[in-house]
Write the structure tokens for this entry.
Amino acid sequence: MKELNNPYLVKVYSDVQKRNQGKEFLQAVFEVLQSIEPIIHKHPEFEQHGIVERIVEPERLIHFQVPWVDDNGKTRVNRGYRVQFNSALGPYKGGLRFHPTVNESVVSFLGFEQVFKNALTNLPMGGGKGGSDFDPKEKSDGEIKRFCQSFISELYRHIGQFTDVPAGDIGVGSREIGYMYGYYKKIKNEFTGVLTGKNVNNSGSLVRTEATGYGVVYITEEMLSKVKNDNFKGKRVSISGSGNVAIYTAEKVKELGGIVVTVSDSSGYVYDENGIDIAILKQIKEVERKRLTEYAKLVPTSTYHDNSNGVWDIACDIAFPSATQNEIDLKDAEKLVKNGVTVVAEGSNMSTTPDAVEYFIKNGVLFLPGKAANAGGVAVSGLEMSQNSLRLSWSFEEVDNHLKEIMINIFKTIDETAKKYGLEGNYVDGANIAGFLKVASAMIWQG
Ligand code: NDP
Ligand code: 2IT
């Protein structure tokens, strides 16, 4: 692993370490500081304006109690969070995650990453993130609704269409956004675009459901075409996760002629060399909300394996980690490279540990970091905000074309930035430098 040498960055990182204990947040900050190290001496104004120390410190971090009543009439308590990280480019924007692993470090790393991701979309959005350690698994619909209403009855005072616009993430999909939106409307007596990922009949945007997965595939397609003059046809593709991002990544890969051989959940993975059946996967995960074990029962050509990390043992040409952070470590990366992987694109945020990222890049794997690769979700959220402001709904084709254009443009930005600073092919540095420069210049302009 590289170390920081620039005295200004060394000092900033040491202060970050003193103030924050969580490993995920420190990991995300260290990566960005490493990436900007080669350019920092060219910009003495950053130190003069305190840009780096400001960019690593959330503008506001809110945590609050979320009491809710379960089906047995017992009151239970979870902790809710919203980190409003940086508003230089627009209202705070980013998802809400409901998962037992959510804590201050997790929402902070996600909020920090979101700042640079949103900058890369070129849409006017700052960065934020939030969520709760509430576990939606095995909860009844009534429990989910009561939890969401309690969560928003506190969060509502901190958000708004021009202030902070949350959306979904792990454990938060259209159902949860609906319950939160309905309660916000009731409390505030206003119908505004305060959340994205809304139902399409209730001022949501077409393509938002598909956006992250489709976007990951569009940017990968662009990279394959520009760098290797290649495409998805006949490629074996491994995907982890079986939620929103995984499903629509799989759907688009299949449409472009690739063969998706795996999907997973936190209990295990499914392998099918003939390709995963997307319609059955959607029925089980989106409609019936069941586990992947049910998929294997319905599709006789598939096999179920009860270790979710085993998904990286399978030989593939392209891997799309699409479950959670740090799901690919060095050992997984070594297996993937040994088995012939040539492209890895992060559908999940910070899917890959730092040593695994370094290993991929050293071994010539084309590696797209989440900040760039999964920006399609928030990009279409930005387009949902535009439509809400205009009081208009664009067609599927129109939004999909915008999404494609944004993803192609992100690839161009990170590729050209990497080349400009002598880091050709390093899309991690390209994304971090490009996102940082955009946010930094807005911060300096704003004083
Ligand atoms: P979902 O809740 O729809 O699906 C999450 C999937 O990942 C499930 O299959 C889940 O399995 C699995 N998973 C979650 N946590 C773990 C874990 N700790 N270990 C193993 N598997 C796990 O979430 P999304 O598809 O929306 O999000 C997936 C990733 O994509 C996240 O990193 C998110 O931040 C990122 N992302 C999402 C965007 C969006 O628009 N939704 C946009 C950009 C990035 P199980 O059901 O067993 O828990
Ligand atoms: O990580 C992400 O970019 C998201 N979960 C989507 C955020 C959004 O505001 O649509």
Residues 396-420 form the longest helix (25 residues).
